[in-house]
């Protein structure tokens, strides 16, 4: 471990009954790094992500976040420090966009003025002008706009890390490409560690400083996109990369 490792995943295994979803997986993520996790359906990507923010507990092993075992965090404290963006943003339908984005700061009892200021900042950052969007309801926004709100909500309390679980998979290719650029912009301009699950190899290689390849719950390779391209760990990785580029 070095001092700038913000997340350490140490020998994690997860079973659901007879199913081994993850099998002795270890890796570390440095502060400010973007890690993309890729693998085929059922390879354990979402299970791993959910364990980083304590939605699931490991069967074996441990996860250290910012120097502390994540099991020792009170859940709200972990939510403040780790934003979570899902495939469907799951906004509260009867709440305005403003109220949705302010969720975590309200739970943390921030003063109202500070919450409103932060919401306006985030709407601007996500290119959703406040005058147009703040008082609308989620159903009055497109899928891509809703996902922008989902990202704004996850960023609201200035987390140290963001987890993205296939956030663009239900969007059309153009919107997907716009949002990918937005995530690249956030990556360059906010000093946040990102863990991004995708099954699009191009997406993983364009967004990730590092890429982790999982297969049947096992870590197959962990390295920079260049390392993986130039020195694939085995035949599976070679084929997987080739298939991805043919998509
Ligand atoms: N709550 C659960 N109960 C039982 N089995 C589960 C549960 N969650 C996941 N699994 C199993 O664990 C394995 C890994 O699932 P996981 O959702 O992590 O894969 P994934 O790589 O994210 O897949 P996808 O790309 O399809 O979302 C699968 O075999 C899945 O069926």
From TrEMBL:
InterPro entries: AAA+_ATPase, ABC_transporter-like_ATP-bd, ABC_transporter-like_CS, P-loop_NTPase. GO terms for molecular function: ATP binding; ATP hydrolysis activity. It comes from the Bacteria. Keywords: ATP-binding, Nucleotide-binding, Transport. SUPFAM superfamilies: P-loop containing nucleoside triphosphate hydrolases (SSF52540). Residues 7-241 form the ABC transporter domain. The keyword Transport applies. One of its GO terms (biological process) is quaternary ammonium group transport. Transmembrane segments: none annotated. Pfam families: ABC_tran (PF00005). Belongs to the ABC transporter superfamily. This is ABC transporter ATP-binding protein.
């Amino acid at each position: 471990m070095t001092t700038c490792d913000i997340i350490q995943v140490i020998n994690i295994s997860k079973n659901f009954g007879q199913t081994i979803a993850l099998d002795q997986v270890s890796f570390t993520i440095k502060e400010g790094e973007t890690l993309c996790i890729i693998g085929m359906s059922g390879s354990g990507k979402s299970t791993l992500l959910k364990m980083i923010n304590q939605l699931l507990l490991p069967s074996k092993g441990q996860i250290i976040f910012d120097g502390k075992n994540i099991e020792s965090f009170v859940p709200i404290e972990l939510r403040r420090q780790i934003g979570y963006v899902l495939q469907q943003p799951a906004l509260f339908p009867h709440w305005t966009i403003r109220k949705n984005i302010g969720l975590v700061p309200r739970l943390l009892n921030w003063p109202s003025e500070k919450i409103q200021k932060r919401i306006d900042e985030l709407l601007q950052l996500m290119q959703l002008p406040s005058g147009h969007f703040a008082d609308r309801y989620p159903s009055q926004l497109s899928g891509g706009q809703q996902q922008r709100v989902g990202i704004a909500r996850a960023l609201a309390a200035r987390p140290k890390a963001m987890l993205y679980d296939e956030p663009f998979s239900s969007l059309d290719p153009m919107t997907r490409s716009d949002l990918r650029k937005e995530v690249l912009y956030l990556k360059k301009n906010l000093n946040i560690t990102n863990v991004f699950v995708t099954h699009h190899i191009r997406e993983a290689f364009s967004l990730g400083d590092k890429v982790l390849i999982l297969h049947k719950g096992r870590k197959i390779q962990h390295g920079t996109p260049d390392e993986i391209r130039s020195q694939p760990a085995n035949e599976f990785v070679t084929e997987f990369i080739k298939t991805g580029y043919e998509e």
